[in-house]
Amino acid sequence: MRAFRPLFQAVKLQKLPADYACRTATAALTQQRLSVVERETDADALEAALGEGPLAFVVKQAEAENQLVDKVAEWKAWEPLAEQAPEGQWAYAFKNKSA
């Protein structure tokens, strides 16, 4: 199962600020997956230990996370907004506004 190691080691999180929530959450998930990959030697055991469905899905998800990191870095999503957000921009449909 060590063949999966490069996939999880390749996450390009260093492109994002160290304290950015997306980076810290993705780093934790990636490290958890990598530790399981290091521990398991059987594909079925790896799939069960990850608990994220078929390995093909896990691979696709990891690839998508890498692509998303590239986009987030390009967008610089951690920077302040260029303009003030319109009123209600961050209000959610089911959020209790009186709370």
TrEMBL record:
**What residue stretch is flagged as signal peptide?**
none
Give the primary localization class. Answer: mitochondrion
Membrane topology per the record? Answer: Peripheral membrane protein
Domain of life (superkingdom): Eukaryota
- List the keywords (alphabetical): Electron transport, Membrane, Mitochondrion, Mitochondrion inner membrane, Respiratory chain, Transport
Instruction: Name a single GO cellular component.
Output: mitochondrial inner membrane
Q: Looking at the keywords, is Flavoprotein present? A: no
List the subcellular locations: Mitochondrion inner membrane
Q: Name one GO biological process term.
A: respiratory electron transport chain
- Membership in a protein family: Belongs to the complex I NDUFA5 subunit family.
Q: What name does the UniProt record give this protein?
A: NADH dehydrogenase [ubiquinone] 1 alpha subcomplex subunit 5
